[in-house]
Amino acid sequence: MAKRDILIIPDKRLRLKSETVKSVDKPLRALVDDMFETMYAAPGIGLAAIQIGVPQRVVTMDLAKKDEAPAPQVFINPEITWSSAEQATYDEGCLSIPEYYEEVARPKKVKVKFLDLEGKEHEIEADGLLATCLQHEIDHTNGVLFIDHISKLKRDMVMKKFKKAAKRGEPVKPGREDDVPEHHIG
Ligand code: K1U
Ligand code: ZN
Question: Long-range pairs for 110-113 at CB < 8 Å and ≥24 separation?
Answer without folding.
Answer: 110/80, 110/82, 110/83, 110/84, 110/134, 110/135, 111/80, 111/81, 111/82, 111/83, 112/75, 112/78, 112/79, 112/80, 112/81, 112/138, 113/78, 113/79, 113/81
